[in-house]
Amino acid sequence: MDTNAPKTPATLPLAAWQSLSSAEAAREVHARVAALSPSLRRAALAWLKPEAELAGELAASARTSQPLRGVPYLLKDLFDLAGVPTNAGSSFLNSARGTPALDSALVRQLRGLGAACAGKTHLVEFAAGLFGDNSHYGDCPHPRFPERLSGGSSSGSAALVAAGVVPLAIGTDTGGSVRVPAAFCGLYGFRLSPGDDFIRDAMPLAPSLDTAGWFTASAADMLTATSALVGPLLNKQGMPEPRGGYLPAKIFGIPFDSATAAACDRAAAAVAQPADPATAAELLSSWQDAIEAYTVTALHEAHGIHRSWLAPYRTEYEPSIWQRFSDGANYTSAQLATAAASFARVRAAFQHYFTRHDFLILPATPFPALRKADGTPEARRALLTLTTPASLAGLPVLTLPVPLPSGLTTGLQVILPAANSAVVPWICSGGL
Q1: What's the longest Cα–Cα distance across the chain?
Q2: How many CA atoms lie within 13 A of 219 on its CB side?
Q3: Would strands 244-246 and 273-274 be described as parallel, antiparallel, or unpaired?
Q4: DSSP state for residue 323 in the 8-state scheme
Q5: Alpha-carbon distance 411 to 399, whole Å?
Q6: Which domains occur in the chain, in start order?
Q7: Which residues on adjacent β-strands are paired with residue 422?
């Protein structure tokens, strides 16, 4: 058990932030940033809005009746904020593209809902990783277990919500980049679906797989944020409870930490029954080649995005990311067709499942937050075994934190047929 976890300020719920004056809220954000360890601050925070400017924006937003009025949030540095560099965890993107003149659609939507952007967060370079490592700005430490990593790629956003700096932070999820850090940092997370307005103007990793998402520290705040950002959630009042099933840890055939497996199964059993053997077999069969299909598609698309930068900026990339993006040019039409067929099988299996069910629960991770040395290719593959099914299906996922006896955390993925599913208020109101 880790015994030297630093003290972090208590997280304040959305309502508590909204009860502060604009000056108090801006001052509180800056005080909480100042209280961070230097290593966490450097690795997690890309840019902080000056206190007076933040107070002014909060004051303007507090005069509305919108659900996120007066709420400060942090923005993953894949989304543009007018006048602020977007580097996507790299050292050169702003030089290659220029400082953006316009806000991204998600920033505009959040402003309309009353929230004020307090700053931007670092990430794994170009969102191409799951552990939270970054050679340019420092590996992002877990805020309570600094010898471990926060998870990625939305590392800074997750770490700073877990550290209590803000109640809401924006991330993205291509192959698990909201789900994994939410689980590692003990947060609630939500990912949307590819191609929607919120992700379309963000710096892409793989456009057919990229999704926008967000983190909160509580179920109540997740329900508030999701209701605001997604729109009215379906209400099944007076109707039967949502129907769902879960797949136990042992069914995946990967090396699960025993405490993590037990905790995930116990938490899932509190809201669902195990999937029947025929259903489980159908799903697992469709997912058999999911990791390979994900890898081929993601790297092929990443190469297309980075093609013109790979030569002139070669020395600026983290070497392994440069190599992976370069290798994306080498996939054959046959490999791409095989990957597309895998996508189709996964989507068909989920479509069949959702004719009879409202949600499916899987573990989010097979282990808690890792030390840097444990972020191996084998660990990455184990994570992708759990996360790629929903990624290939393009489905929204609500991530729920699951505590472990060590004080670390894991999580559950609640895979949904639609972002406005009635399952979201059902689960969030139940406080799992």
Answers
A1: 61
A2: 13
A3: parallel
A4: H
A5: 6
A6: 10-273+358-432 (3.90.1300.10)
A7: none
How many Cβ atoms are within 10 Å of 337's Cβ, its own excluded? 11
Describe the crossing of helices 319-327 and 290-306 by its angle, rounded to 10 degrees.
Answer: 100
pTM value is 0.97
The rounded distance, in Å, linking the Cα atoms of 198 and 374 is 33
Question: What confidence tens digit (pLDDT) does each residue in 417-428 have?
Answer: 999 999 999 999
Q: Dihedral sign, CA of 279, 219, 423, 225?
A: negative
Report d(CA 117, CA 120) in Å as an integer.
Answer: 8
The residues, any chain, with a CB within 8 Å of residue 302's CB and separated by 6 or more, are 126, 128, 205, 206, 324, 325, 328
Q: What is the pLDDT of residue 234?
A: 77
Q: Is the pLDDT of residue 5 over 80?
A: no
Tokens representing 18 are 């909204």
- Active-site residues, by number, are 76, 153, 177
Question: Phi first, then psi: what are they for 137, rounded to 5°?
Answer: -115, -5
Confidence class for position 1, pLDDT limits 50, 70, 90: very low
pLDDT, position 388:
98
Helix (H) or strand (E) holding 299: helix 290-306
